[in-house]
Amino acid sequence: MSSAPTTFGIWHVVPSLEMANTLSSRSLIGRLGIEFTDVDEGSLTARMPVDPRTHQPAGVLHGGASVVLAETLASWAATFTVDRGTASCVGMEINANHLRPVTSGWVTGVARPVALGRRTQVWEIRITDEADSLVCISRCTIAVLPQAQPTRGLGGAS
């Protein structure tokens, strides 16, 4: 009798996109319309609408919205790599280079690890438009915090 694998590539457990979407729906992530769409052995993907919720006054994608998408991906990805009963993950630092304006449609972010340490992780997030043109590239450093009292809760995904 074999059981389903609990690990998948870099992940501590196979990530649940449904759980990430459900828990995120109650926060800024949900208000911006961010949706997790895919996971593979080494990356996590989400998309975000480019509409009045994510526009700057000039009618293009707000750089801050791109940063929210990037940190959301990095925080959730990091959370999926640790035992959430013993650690939580929070953003420490993020940078972003905004390369191309987008006025409508969707942008898609893909987070891939650069370094997965025990105390810190570094993630690269590439955000593209519907034509697959690079809109923003970001790097996010995540702190992996030990929990004082182990719990089976989610941890600190932002």
Mind telling me which CATH architecture this is?
Answer: Roll
Order of helices and strands: HHEEHEEEE
Q: What is the third-level CATH name, the topology?
A: Thiol Ester Dehydrase, Chain A
Main sheet summary: 6 strands, antiparallel
Structural class: alpha+beta
Which CATH class? Answer: Alpha Beta
Net shape: globular
Which value, in Å, is the CA radius of gyration? 16 Å
Q: Residue share in helices?
A: 10-25%
Q: Could you tell me how far the N terminus lies from the C terminus, measured between alpha carbons in angstroms?
A: 38 Å
Helical segment count = 3
The number of distinct β-strands equals 6
CATH superfamily: Hotdog Thioesterase
Mean of residue pLDDT? Answer: 92
Low-confidence parts: none
Strand order of the largest sheet: 1-2-4-5-6-3
Count of structural domains: 1
Offer a few descriptive terms.
Thiol Ester Dehydrase, Chain A; 3 helices; alpha+beta; 6 strands; about 160 residues; single chain
